[in-house]
Fold this sequence. Notes:
Elements: H1 25-88, H2 93-120, H3 127-141
Amino acid sequence: MALSSYDRPAAPAPPPGPPASEPSIGDLIGEIGQDLSQLVRDEIELAKAEIKQESAKAGKAVGMLGGAGYAGHVALLFGSLTLVFALANVMDPAWAALIVTVLWAVVGGVLYAAGRKRLRTVNLKPEQTVETLKEDARWARHPTS
């Protein structure tokens, strides 16, 4: 006589444990890590896009400022020539040119000294960023404090 499916003994019940629908703590921590990694990647991509867009705008502005600088240089050159010719009506043209040249040499020297003084005060180390990174590292080591 063959056993029917009703006559077979039942399989043992699985051991009690957490329901299959609830993930373990390890799974949750893994998901948090993945989410955090994705968040950082997304933020980096956003920063890249913003920097690229702003760099394009800055490049156009720098080009315009360069053109303005060149136009200012040409205007200064012609203004200097005008001053030389005006002084040449009163004195020898060579002396007029020398006076204008000395005038520009003095202006250049003053600008050089002022620029050098300001350049000495420049600190290229990003102090606030370094301090923020140190705070982040301290927080990461001791997140409860």
